[in-house]
Amino acid sequence: MPLSLSKYGLTDLDKDTERVLMALPITEVPKDTVLFRPGDAASGFALLLDGRIDVFLIGSSGRELLLYSIKPGQSCVQSTLGLMGGNDYTGEAISTSPCRVIMIPRDTFLSLMDKSGGFRNFVFRAFANRMQSTIQVLEQVAFIKIETRLAAALLKRAKGNEIHATHQELAVMIGSAREVVSRRLESLAKRGILKLSRGHIAVIDTQALSKLANNPS
Q: What does the angle CA 128 – CA 30 – CA 122 come to, to the nearest 5 degrees?
């Protein structure tokens, strides 16, 4: 079946632009592949067809913050900034599932940005959406209590009443330290909201956890 670019938000493309993009190879990316690290130069723009890529900020202490996840039709703001402004990456991107990607080389990307209104609109629209979601993440880290962010993360990861996640994974999701998350989880367990075991968390009181996630006070 021919690839439909409109499925990924690339609409209103002229025939030449569509032909250029369709001629680029599709790359299979295994799970847990590091796509870029801090200090790397942006060499291309990834059009994600399948899978998910997580982008992290890593502090000097080694602590990680999940900045955003890229899904099909979405863009990487760090790649856009790097290609258009010449900045090196400040974060790290890792595929969290097997992915299929069309990598648009830097020269091709810049040429399409200059010549194709449809492609340019896609890039700027995706960039604006990504910036908005990134600001929301930073606002949560800066202004929302850790316990509230943790409750929301637990509900997001829950399958039924079961959560399979390490304390470190939860810490990355909410932009905190593992030790802090462990203490908060233990507190929730003492209150009868959770039951903890190694690598596994059970939600005992979903109503109380939901109330905590939606009411910071």
A: 20
Q: Which alpha helices (DSSP H) does the chain contain, by range? A: 15-22, 77-85, 106-115, 117-143, 146-157, 167-174, 178-190, 206-214
> Does the domain made of 5-142 have the CATH classification 2.40.160.20?
no
Three-class secondary structure of residue 9 per DSSP: coil
Residues 6+ apart with CB under 8 A from 175: 65, 66, 137, 140, 141, 149
- Mapped onto helix, strand or coil, the DSSP state of residue 38 is coil
Domain boundaries, the chain: 5-142, 144-214
The phi, psi pair for 186, rounded to 5°, reads -60, -40
Q: Which amino acid is at 92?
A: E
- CATH class of the domain defined by 144-214: mainly alpha
CA distance linking residue 82 with residue 55, whole number of Å: 14
**DSSP letters for 57-90:** EE-TTS-EEEEEEE-TT---HHHHHHHHH-PPP-
Query: What average pLDDT values come out for the chain (217 residues) when binned by 10 residues?
Result: 81 93 95 94 94 87 82 91 91 94 96 95 91 81 84 90 88 83 92 88 93 77
Buried-state track 45-64, b at ≥16 Cβ within 10 A, e below 16: bbbbbebbbbbbbeeeeeeb
